[in-house]
Design a protein that fits this description.
The complex is a heterodimer of chains A (112) and B (113).
Chain A lengths: L2 E5 L2 E5 L4 E8 L3 E9 L5 E6 L6 E3 L2 E6 L4 E6 L8 E9 L5 E4 L3 E6 L1
Parallel strand pairs in A: 2-11
Antiparallel strand pairs in A: 1-3, 3-8, 4-5, 4-9, 6-7, 7-8, 9-10, 9-11
Chain B lengths: L3 E4 L2 E4 L5 E7 L5 E7 L5 E9 L2 E4 L6 E3 L9 E3 L8 E8 L8 E2 L3 E5 L1
Parallel strand pairs in B: 2-11
Antiparallel strand pairs in B: 1-3, 3-8, 4-5, 4-9, 5-6, 7-8, 9-10, 9-11
The chains are: A mainly beta (112), B mainly beta (113).
Chain lengths: 112, 113
């Protein structure tokens, strides 16, 4: 069964901490892995990873993919209260018809 | 501006009624998706479509139906057969090759009363 698993399910940290969110996947014909941030309604795009070992960075956020271990991490350094959100990981995969499935998300709460 | 639009934002339905959620995109994307999100949960795939007049069931298709008569539109009907329809519904679109991210609409919150 194709699946995406995220851990931890929830996390509480203090401002300034560094956090690492995990995402593992088991899918057929993997194409890419995507990270999204969801605060209230629509998820907003963070990163798209297609190749192993290439870190993508955006400000205090970074992410990397390991296609051998079927794993990705999302790092957030110097966390701020505005980072509080659900972080979703998704795998795009498939042969003739691409499918995009999501993990259950990690709920991050950053306390002042 | 290009984007993906869902309507309505909030919808109330009586038990036993069918209701249709709208999703329109002007991004020229071939692929479109419908997801359901319950409180504290991730997104679960209901249906997806890679091309006009073709669509596939996702993981939780029972009680739902879709159509894809136009590239821009992918409406979702929540039928009376759906046992627990109260949820937040998100529509997304992307290029079928997957070389760009999926874009999301703002969602429709359906409540059965």
């Amino acid at each position: 069964e194709d699946k995406v698993v995220q851990s931890p399910l929830s996390l509480v940290v203090h401002e300034g901490d560094t956090v690492t969110l995990n995402c593992s996947y088991e899918v057929t014909n993997f194409r890419s892995l995507l990270w999204y941030k969801q605060e209230k309604k629509a998820p907003t795009f963070l990163f798209m990873l297609t190749s192993s070992g290439i870190e993508k960075k955006s400000g205090r956020l970074s992410s990397i993919l390991d296609k051998k271990e079927l794993f990705s991490i999302l790092n957030i350094t110097a966390t701020q209260t505005g980072d509080s959100a659900v972080y979703l990981c998704a795998a795009l995969y498939g042969g003739a018809t691409n499918k995009l499935i999501f993990g259950t998300g990690t709920l991050l709460a950053v306390q002042p | 501006d290009g984007g993906i639009t869902q309507s309505p934002k909030y919808l109330f339905r009586k038990e036993g009624q069918n209701v249709t959620l709208s999703c329109e995109q002007n991004l020229n994307h071939d692929a479109m998706y419908w997801y359901r999100q319950d409180p504290g949960q991730g997104l679960r795939l209901i249906y997806y479509s890679q091309i006009v007049n073709d669509f596939q069931k996702g993981d939780i298709a029972e009680g739902y139906s879709v159509s894809r008569e136009k590239k821009e539109s992918f409406p979702l009907t929540v039928t009376s057969a759906q046992k627990n329809p109260t949820a937040f519904y998100l529509c997304a679109s992307s290029t079928p090759a997957g070389n760009t991210e999926a874009f999301f609409g703002q969602g429709t919150r359906l409540t059965v009363v």
